[in-house]
Amino acid sequence: MRRYRKQDFPTHNVRRFLEPGPIVLVSSAHKDQTNIMTMGWHMVLEFSPALIGCLISGGNHSFDLIRDSKQCVVNIPTVDIAETVVKIGNTSGRYIDKFAEFGLTPKPGTHVRAPLIDECYASFECTLADAGWVNKYNMFVFEVVKAHVATSPKVPKTIHYRGDGEFMISGEETARFRKLFRPGML
Amino acid sequence: MRRYRKQDFPTHNVRRFLEPGPIVLVSSAHKDQTNIMTMGWHMVLEFSPALIGCLISGGNHSFDLIRDSKQCVVNIPTVDIAETVVKIGNTSGRYIDKFAEFGLTPKPGTHVRAPLIDECYASFECTLADAGWVNKYNMFVFEVVKAHVATSPKVPKTIHYRGDGEFMISGEETARFRKLFRPGML
Question: How far apart are CA A140 and CA A136, in angstroms?
Answer without folding.
Answer: 10
